[in-house]
Amino acid sequence: MKADTNLDVIVDFITGQPVSNVGAEVNRQRVERYLIETKGYRREDVVVDAPIDVEIDGDVYRSTVDLVVQIAGRPLMAVKCAAGSLGSREREIVSAARLYGATPLLLAVVSDGSCATVLDVATGKKKGEGLSAVPDRTEAIGLVQADAPSPIAPDRLTREKLVFRSYDSMNVNVRGRVI
Asked: Which DSSP state fits 124?
């Protein structure tokens, strides 16, 4: 597959790979830099374009989560980087965080690179606002040492899958890796 030569290309801060500068890519680069330079995470703590597969009625819907922050291999926080309204992306990232692993992640974050909303995945409620509300690496280590959340009940799991697919499938102007 050949890259569209009309697109700007930038280098991803964490992976060092070229990416098309479309959608919220500039915002994601700001969030990546903030996590590493300000919050003390290591590059290996952050998975970029973390794959997520959701099975619904025998069909698999494949997508990615913009960023997944993990400590010692345990996923902790899913991050959605948005170009517009943060509030309109909250439900999508909470669903992604509930579906990402065998058990839900603890936190979901939506950010435009300048501000952020931190959400409790279990309740879906806001824990904090502003980039400063995102836990730093030291706080994250303490969070992952707690017991893992319980898996989602089967009836609720089906609804979360539908919610995630519905929101995620509406994403437009998403970036793609440059080949």
From this structure: -
